[in-house]
Amino acid sequence: MEITGIKNIHPSASKASSKKGWKLTDSLREKITALAREDAAQGVYMGNLFLALRKSEVAKVAPDRAALMGKVSQRMADMGNMKQIEEADRRWLCLLFGEPYEARFQSGGAAAHVYDGNGDEVLTYTAGVGWHEKESRAETEVHGALKAAYYGAYHAARQEINAGVSGMEAQGGFDAGA
Fold it and tell me: Is 72 helix (H, G, I), strand (E, B) or coil?
């Protein structure tokens, strides 16, 4: 069954962003570098400001899972029409709702798997557990790019800090043996 008409939650996101359109811009890289330097100076790895930034950037490529849960739950509650919904023509559903998502139901609605337009499973529902969110490939790529940029900047900042401490030791500013 196709589930469509779900928009991305982030207002600045477009269809391209959900299809690998997200890019690590120079200004974003500079912001990450500044956050990494601040964190390195405080001795904290991935501080709260960076984590908030990362969450914000990942939201740009994330599907609106709450809306998906609502639509799938609504379909599952109306199991009498489930046969009609499952047999509906894909083109008809796309015309009705817009961008496609696909849901596969098992055991008369005891389990549901929701896939995005790229074929990534983004939600799973089981009767005993409830909803479980899964990260899409696009979200994983954004997480990876942001973490790699942060790691490089943090590592460079720590090296600068350590080089400054070593310089003080060489000048006699600190004697560990005293």
Answer: helix
Q: Which residues of 13-22 are buried (b: 16+ CB within 10 A; e: fewer)?
A: beeebbeeeb
Which sign does the torsion angle of CA 37, 41, 45, 48 carry? negative
Whether the model clears a pTM of 0.85, i.e. scores above it, the answer is no
* Residue 160 CB contacts under 8 Å (≥ 6 apart), including other chains: none
Q: In what order do the strands lie in the sheet with 111-115?
A: 2-4, 100-106, 111-115, 121-126, 130-133
**166: confidence class by pLDDT, cuts 50, 70, 90:** low
Q: Evaluate if residue 113 carries a pLDDT over 50.
A: yes
Q: What does the domain layout of the chain look like in residue ranges?
A: 2-10+25-170
